[in-house]
Amino acid sequence: MLGVQKRGPTYKCEATTLEGFIQQLAVGYVARRYFFYVSGRVPKRLTPQEHDARLLDKYGVAISKWSRYRRTKRTGPGGRPLANVQYIRYRDFWVLLSTAGYHRFFQEHVQLAPGGLATIRQYQDVRQTPVVFGGYTIGHNGKASVRLSRRAYRELKEQFLQVACLHRTTDRLEQEFRRSPFESYGGVTRQMFALLKAVNKARKTAGLSPVPRSCVRVKRKAVKPFEPVSIRLAA
Questions:
Q1: For the chain, what is the largest distance between any 2 Cα atoms, rounded to a whole number of angstroms?
Q2: For residues 119 and 114, what is the distance between their CA atoms, to the nearest angstrom?
Q3: What span, in angstroms and rounded, lies between the C-alpha atoms of 133 and 137?
Q4: What is the superkingdom listed in this entry's lineage (predicted)?
Q5: Where are the domains of the chain?
Q6: For the chain, what percentages of helix, strand and coil (3-state, to nearest 5) are there?
Q7: All residues at 6 or more sequence positions from 136 whose CB lies less than 8 Å from its CB, including other chains
Q8: Which of 145, 68, 130 is nearest to 99 (CA)?
Q9: pLDDT tens track of the chain, all 235 residues?
Q10: Is 112 helix (H, G, I), strand (E, B) or coil?
Q11: SS3 193
Q12: What gap in Å lies between CA 223 and CA 77, rounded to an integer?
């Protein structure tokens, strides 16, 4: 199931590829100021579709673009604007996001601190704590940011340095850089150039020719996040 039918339009929430999930999360939501989030894995007692339906219904996610716009013009308690929420899932990993303002999302994700005199926030702010999934981190620092996670970057660097000086020619290394499984977001591209610099430093020490910068992919191909994979393969 790629969407959940509610009153009005079908709300698409199931990304069919990791690339689509990261793109929709970063470009579709975080870049549009959906900064606050909770995330998790679908409980084994539920199917992913059952979990989708529960959250969409509980938080009133499946509304039209026009309804979201109207909410931004209304105010809740204390004069705060009403917030909007979005939900996305890839396989069993899901993220529920909200803009700033008044919404059940914030009421549900706080708990009383010991003593009952204060509350503890259970949701995260992507500007402070990026979403980490699939080897990526998705954050916001003035604009949406997608980078390799620390673990993914460390492992990739180790792999490249292990083979940096195995071949006198650069053909094999150029292929490895071009075949990198990570999409060429700005942050990822800068990290790939940093890896290339480390590889060329090792090759220079060994008296070998440098790997050209042209092997690092700098253009990202946009995808349709919710398009069935069968349709994409047939195109």
A1: 68
A2: 9
A3: 7
A4: Bacteria
A5: 3-126, 150-215
A6: 40, 20, 40
A7: 22, 146, 147, 148, 149, 152, 182, 188
A8: 68
A9: 456 544 456 899 999 999 999 999 999 999 999 999 999 999 999 999 999 999 999 999 999 999 999 999 999 888 889 999 999 999 999 999 999 999 999 999 988 778 766 678 999 999 999 999 999 999 999 999 999 999 999 999 999 999 999 999 999 999 999 999 999 999 999 999 999 999 999 999 999 999 999 999 999 999 999 999 765 555 5
A10: strand
A11: helix
A12: 40
**Side chain identity, residue 177:** F
Q: How far apart are CA 37 and CA 49, in angstroms?
A: 20
Residue at token pair 């004069």: 79
Contacts of 188 (CB under 8 A, 6+ apart): 136, 146, 147, 148, 182
For the chain, helix (H) and strand (E) counts, in that order, are 8, 11
CA distance 147 to 145: 7
Report the amino acid identity of residue 103.
Answer: H
Q: Yes or no: say if 230 and 17 are a contact pair by the CB < 8 Å rule.
A: no
Taking the C-alpha atoms of residue 175 and residue 183, their distance in angstroms, rounded to an integer, is: 16
